[in-house]
Write a structure and sequence with these properties.
Chain lengths: 145, 287
Amino acid sequence: MANGSQTGQIGLRGWVYAGRFGLERYAYTLHRITGLGLLLYFLMHICVTSSRALGQAAWESVMGFLSHPIFRIGEFLVYVAFAYHALNGVRLILGELGLGLGNPVRPEYPYPIAHRRQRPLFLALMIISGILILAGGWDFFVTKH
Amino acid sequence: MCQRNEHSGQALSDEIVREVVFRVQRYSPGQDRPVTREYRVPVTRGMTVLDGLHYIRDNLDATLSYRFSCRMGVCGSCGMYINSFPRLACQTQILELNSDLVDVRPMPNYPVVKDLVPDLSQLFAKHREVQPFIIRNEQELEHPTAEFLQKPEELLRYLQFTYCIKCGLCLTACPTVATDPRYLGPQALAQSYRYCADTRDAGAEGRLRIAAGRDGVWRCHLAGACSEACPKGVDPALGIQLLKRLAVLRALSLKKPHSPAPVAGKRTGVERRPGIPQPPPPTVESR
């Protein structure tokens, strides 16, 4: 088939290239990427902590390896993913319960779009997410522990 | 009859106001990859992208294939990807695109039959899968005797979703459909809600089993692109969220199944006002 597969799916490009759509479609893409990132972190976390079962030497070796600054940045990225994913998730859960979307209406032009009624909530949550990320960045890279 | 310009007296519909380049994706069965071809199209006021394609076919390249029927946004045949947005070609004014380049491609997320013609069979198969019809365990549907009673506010709960013309633009816009071919998609799920919310229906339980299953509503994460692309204001994203709420309420037993709307009985004690003609005879036989 002309566009790649038997079903015509455009694949991951369909997530990344959001075209001329609203903010929510970009939020979707970021939500999926951060979700996959957090899942990857949890899997790595299980592998790292399970090294303790191999004895203290193995544990200390792994901890020594993870003390490299690159992993500090990685930890911060996990925190950024958490802050975004959790707060955007609040919006999604509210939407899934039909809260803040309004009721169906007669489709009279210009057509109303229900999820745009949630836009103020989305922006407020993104501001809170930004504040959390800045505060976390300060704690990660500026505060001496 | 065409309008006339009051200064020049020229027919407005014939006056060429701009020339644009149509960049059209072409594909024929057997080709490895699609190719793009460019055509120069003179544009008159009121000309749609579909009119531009007609111009190309009639004057520049008779081999161009595209699908259309009603030319007024009712049949849903001419869905295309025009200047990076899913639109109906018959409803898209070339001048409103405000560009010298009109990029026309077949709808993404569908196999291509030829040029701008997508294969919509998956769309229709998914639509059928969600049982998009009234379900009642009685003979009234097969042998109707009267209409079912429904209040205007009950109608408004699902009316918006009945405007779907099955053009398939929402599946083109949906990012989940892009990577999950089994996902039922916004068109079918909005129609599932349309029938679940209908007070005449009693089949919500079976319909929800499909719609809230593995390939159903929980694959949607409210990107909302389907609603932005919908040319009829159906707002499928809203329908999907309301379907999720219904599934949750039913699972928690917070919403009991309703009794389907009753059949209208014979009116008694009411007299026809004078001067009002009798209705035509019934089109179905009474039992």
